[in-house]
Amino acid sequence: MRRPTVPSKLVRLICAFSALGGLTLLTGCWLDGPQSTFHVKGPVARAQLDLFMVTVYVTAFIFVAVGAVLAFATLRFRARSAADQHAEPPPQSHGNFLVEISLVSASVLCLVIIAFPTLRNIGYTYDVPAAEQANAYEITATGSQWWFKFEYPREQIEGVGPLVTGNELVIPAGRPVRIALRTLDVIHSFWVPKLAGKVDMIPNRPNHLWLQADEPGYYYGQCAEFCGDSHAIMRFRVIALSAPEFAAWLANQERPARVVAPDAAAAAPRPHAVFASYRTTAGGALAGSPEFDANPFAAWKEKQVPDPAHENRQLITEGRRLFQEKTCIACHTIRGHEGVGVTGPDLTHVGARTTIAAGSLENTPRRMHAWIADPNHFKPGNKMYNGGYTDPTTGQRLIHLNDAEIDALVAYLQSLK
Ligand code: CUA
Fold first, then answer.
1. Interval between CA 147 and ligand 1 midpoint (Å)
2. Ligand 1 contact via 223 beta carbon (within 6 Å)
3. Predicted confidence band at 80 (pLDDT cuts at 50, 70, 90)?
């Protein structure tokens, strides 16, 4: 049997690469995950996708053209016999001026084809277009290890300052939104794949981006710059609402935290049994997001509405007391209630969010219980764990929360709609 010659190996390699490239392009057209940059939902992400596709077409053309010439040369001039394999190489020349100048010109042309839309896009994505400026909504997003704070400078609450939320950015749909980007510690990067991104949040350097959601919806965001232990799960959500829904959401958010009065008559059995079977330290890890994933937008809307019929008023009252007693107040604000801290996310309306732990866990009582019981299990290195629960050097528990106390805290936090 004849050993395959080097040129035929090359041909096989080229065929394999072509097949791989084709497959990648083909699957690319169907990639529709929650963070897909191929199924975009706004003009900025669309401009970025269009530019990406220009680059793909140009480079695909180069790949095919160079591959074809290479394949032709290897097939046409391959060694056809044992004598050919041992023959002297043909006489070498310095090259062909016409071929060289054509190759240089073709390369320049390819770069120019990519440069024009690139330059246009740099201008377009930098800031809201002049004609739209008056209609733009303003947000300030601040990254921290490892969560996002969102401030609404246009919504000033008397005696407090701008409206603040955490990890779920609610915006008006169909309207440009200009987002000022800040960081409290290291470099983070703000990225909502279906809407826009990514732009870095750099210490001491104000940055910004703009985005627009074509229609109301629930979009996934992600920190896209390595920022420490839990970078990979530093996520957030963007919820785009129609104008009336957005106005209603703002009105509710501007209210101080909801008060649930204790009422002996409404005291139901403690819902401890619902949560207590859950133990992360015993090896049970919570999977990604199985409960809301089918329709997270509907889940979000449902979360906005309090459900007094299923609330344990006594437990909520106990939770509010514990929130103070266990020093949660030092890092978290619950506007209108006791908390005043700013180290952690504002929890005034935490019960109305679909996620906790910076978008890494769904906001269900069971998950919130697991999160409070062992935050480091879900977000390694986070400050709630290091600062409040366990001494990092001695491993000694500084604040102990038993299951019943966590249940009360969960009931309280879930009541904050
Ligand atoms: Cu923040 Cu990565």
1. 8
2. yes
3. confident
